[in-house]
Amino acid sequence: MKIKNICCIGAGYVGGPTMAVIAHKCPDIKVTIVDLNAQRIADWNDENTDNLPVYEPGLDEIVKSARGKNLFFSTDVEKAIDEAEMIFISVNTPTKTYGLGKGMAADLKYIELCARQIAAVAKNDKIVVEKSTLPVRTAEAIKNILDNTGNGVEFQILSNPEFLAEGTAIDDLLAPDRVLIGGDTDAKGQEAIEALVDVYANWIAKDKILTTNVWSSELSKLTANAFLAQRVSSINAMSELCEKTGADVNEVARAIGMDSRIGPKFLKSSVGFGGSCFQKDILNLVYIAKSYGLNEVADYWEQVIIMNDHQKRRFAANIVKTLYNTVSGKKIAFLGWAFKKDTNDTRESAAIYVADDLLFEQANIAVYDPKVEEQTIFRDLDYLATRTPDENRESVTVVNNPYEACKDAHAIAILTEWDEFKNYDWDKIYANMKKPAFVFDGRNVLDAEEMRSKGFVFTAIGK
Ligand code: NAD
Ligand code: UDX
Question: Which of 23, 258, 394, 445 sits at 20 to 30 Å (Cα–Cα) from 110?
Answer without folding.
Answer: 23
